[in-house]
Specification:
heterodimer, A: mainly beta, 7-stranded mixed beta sheet, 4-stranded antiparallel beta sheet, B: mainly beta, 5-stranded antiparallel beta sheet, 55% strand
Chain lengths: 115, 109
């Protein structure tokens, strides 16, 4: 196990609703990245948080927003849900050390279904 | 054109055989390359980094060809437990990971 936890594991919402997904990073990690993985696709980068600040964003609309808390846990919020938002949402934590690459450890994901 | 492209497979491989597959990337400024493994309905896990000189990790060999902008993964002596989707991952010039859609490998007895 990576030590990264996500909640809830599954969620069903209807179009237009709002959802909040949560992620607890691995102990000692200061960076959290969020990904959306649609069926049959690879994970797509949504955004990354480093020390409570957004540190890069992928090609997702503003209705996807996030937070990182002082304990480095994080939330992903999605407003005005659309059917295409149905996917597995993964968070990954890492420790930013200035090295070229810091391995990201993924949580088990939250499977969101929008009806 | 997608930033990272992979043959989705599936590659059906007899146990004990060798399988190899490639991944192409479009951004020549990409900095780092990785293979991740994802089991069905599970999270991705880092399999190995890919170095310019090529590298091995047990039965797995990764190669990088910067001139042609592709990376490859070779699995020798395939085990049933190697059945998974293998995700090609590229770290782009602004430091974020870009994933391919994955290549499915099915190892059969």
């Amino acid at each position: 196990e990576t030590g990264v936890t996500q909640s809830p594991t599954h969620l069903i919402k209807t179009r237009g609703q709002q959802v909040t997904l949560r992620c607890s990073s691995q102990s000692g990690h200061n960076t959290v990245s969020w990904y959306q993985q649609a069926l049959g696709q690879g994970p797509q980068f949504i955004f990354q948080y480093y020390r409570e600040e957004e540190n890069g964003r992928g090609n997702f609309p503003p209705r996807f927003s996030g937070l990182q808390f002082p304990n480095y846990s994080s939330e992903l919020n999605v407003n005005a849900l659309e059917l295409d938002d149905s996917a597995l949402y993964l968070c990954a934590s890492s420790l930013a050390t200035g090295a070229q690459y810091n391995e990201q450890f993924f949580g088990p994901g939250t499977r969101l279904t929008v009806l | 054109r997608k930033e990272v492209e992979q043959d989705p497979g599936p590659f059906n491989v007899p146990e004990g055989a060798t399988v190899a597959f490639n991944c192409t990337y479009s951004n020549s400024a990409s900095q780092s390359f990785f293979w991740y493994r994802q089991d069905c309905r599970k999270e991705p896990k880092l399999l190995m980094s890919v170095y310019s000189s090529g590298n091995e990790d047990g039965r797995f060999t990764a190669q990088l060809n910067r001139a042609s902008q592709y990376i490859s993964l070779l699995i020798r002596d395939s085990k049933l437990s190697d059945s998974a989707t293998y995700l090609c991952v590229v770290k782009n010039s602004w430091g974020k990971l870009q994933f391919g859609a994955g290549t499915q490998v099915v190892v059969t007895p």
